[in-house]
Amino acid sequence: MSDQPSPDGSAAGPVLEHLDEAECLRLIAPGGIGRIAYTGRFDLTVLPVNYKLHEGSIYFRSAEDSLTIQDLRTGIKDADYRVAFEVDDFDESAREGWSVLVRGRAHHLDADEEQEAARLADVEPWAPGERNHFIRVVPVRVTGRRIANSA
Amino acid sequence: MSDQPSPDGSAAGPVLEHLDEAECLRLIAPGGIGRIAYTGRFDLTVLPVNYKLHEGSIYFRSAEDSLTIQDLRTGIKDADYRVAFEVDDFDESAREGWSVLVRGRAHHLDADEEQEAARLADVEPWAPGERNHFIRVVPVRVTGRRIANSA
Known about the structure:
The structure is a homodimer of 151-residue chains.
Chain A: E1 14-19, H1 21-28, E2 32-40, E3 43-54, E4 57-62, H2 67-71, E5 81-91, E6 96-108, H3 112-121, E7 133-149
Antiparallel strand pairs in A: 1-7, 2-3, 2-5, 3-4, 4-7, 5-6, 6-7
């Protein structure tokens, strides 16, 4: 990408910074709204969910019978579905902000002890209905970038 | 999904509403931050961009040499890359908000007249550098949902 400083060497104007994994995890640690992305039966899908970060993994929950949950099944025991999880925060008036992209596997928490781990993570869904199925996204690759505007 | 009203028939608690295409397009019409999702060389990718809606299509721009632009090339002339574009707006304290998902093809605006159309759409990138390559996402399927909290 063309993210050189301006020709006169000043720091004026927007600056694009690539973030390391530690900074990415720090940024997404508070939890909130993130977006789960996967290739489902209706093609590429991106859906916002309420998530928590707990011991380095992302947790969210949904209804057992939802399309999302069904789509995230490989049909093979212990074979997890590859997903991406995106979180960002932008100040539209300042034209500044950051985004973090986590690639990993969507692991369904079926066993009792895993349910307990997820409850400890205290993930509250916003959507109505019984959403007692937990998914954990175990990060494999974490990348991020920040746009700062010093103009 | 389990989005029935509560047993006593009251409207208390969160309500999940599926939005029709016209309502989705109305919600994303003001432009702003959206997220382009595609399967690139580094697996599934979701990246925020500044977009405009113009004559029913989504426009954004990036640097000609960026990974995003290269990833969105099929290598076949006139064969467009399948993408998803997500826009949402949530009030985290009220636990309310909406999200819209546009599935479509990422069409590269190579011809002069297409560049002109994109300039008319007035898409301003935030990131630094020369971002004079335009992409138009022509919607094929538009879906959305809203969570309202009347509790």
